[in-house]
Amino acid sequence: MYKWKVVVTAVTFAKADPEPLQRLQAIGCEVITNSLGRPLTEDEMINAAQDADVLIVGNDKVTGKIIRSCSCLQVIAKHGVGVDGIDSKTAAECGVVVTNAPGVNSHEVADLTFGLLHMLSRGLHTANESTKSGHWLKPMGVGLWGKTIGIVGVGKIGLAAAYRATGYKMKILGFDSVKRPEAREIGIDYVALDQLLQQSDFVSLHLPLTNETRNILDDAKLCLLKPGAILINTARSQLVEYETLYKALLDGRIRGYGVDVYDFEPPQLHPMFSLEDVILTPHLGGNVIKLSKIERLHR
């Protein structure tokens, strides 16, 4: 019987629960996991997967060169949702199936979104540091109750974030090319992006990265943000034009920026990262213990 070779580069695969690995092994697969604890480089991935049938990837970049170099490859499975790091066009040309698990981490990412929003709106991160250092500083915060939140990208994660916003009696504005019936049911008011940016106290990004959405918040759009707005990005860093955002934060036009995603991971240092009102997390939106079981059921 043919023994499938499965190469896993996703560093979180079976980390919290060994069952996914055990199930692959139980059906006779040879499974090679990532021992480096980081995404692989192009050459490392080619070397690891050149005779693999299946590639399970995390935040790795799967280039056309990788796909063409792995002649046995039949499936590329994203251990998560976003497939923008996979050259899907080359995969299709080579007859390689690309899969993902849409919606699997919706609630976890929405939780992180509101965690970042709470920290920035109340200055909890600075209060924590000052109190630990022996200072008794009480930053004046902004409440969430009754405010307006703009959800840019009303997919599964955007909807999950909107559900949480209803608990704070927020007015919810949404922007998306697809108008979902369930969005109306929870009170999302679809508006143009310009209107959303001008009227929202908080803006949360939940769009996939495509040619159309890359730098969707460019210089012109960022200038429309309501003074003192808070921007949360748990989607893709390339949705935002960084230099303009950096200037807006320096000028105090934007109250804060919470981000879980980066152009490169680990991220290259940027002066913006040292600002007090910028909170960074290491792309951990879906990193919760129970998610591993949910993902298997979803698939």
Automatic annotation (TrEMBL):
Pfam families (alphabetical): 2-Hacid_dh_C
Any one GO molecular-function label of the UniProt entry: NAD binding
Gene3D superfamilies: NAD(P)-binding Rossmann-like Domain
Ranges of residues in domain D-isomer specific 2-hydroxyacid dehydrogenase NAD-binding: 115-285
CDD domains from the UniProt entry: PGDH_like_2
Coiled coil: none
Record flagged with keyword tRNA-binding: no
This protein's UniProt keywords: NAD, Oxidoreductase
NAD recorded as keyword: yes
InterPro entries: D-2-hydroxyacid_DH, D-isomer_DH_CS, D-isomer_DH_CS1, D-isomer_DH_NAD-bd, NAD(P)-bd_dom_sf
Family indicated by similarity: Belongs to the D-isomer specific 2-hydroxyacid dehydrogenase family.
Record's protein name: D-3-phosphoglycerate dehydrogenase
Organism: Pelosinus propionicus DSM 13327
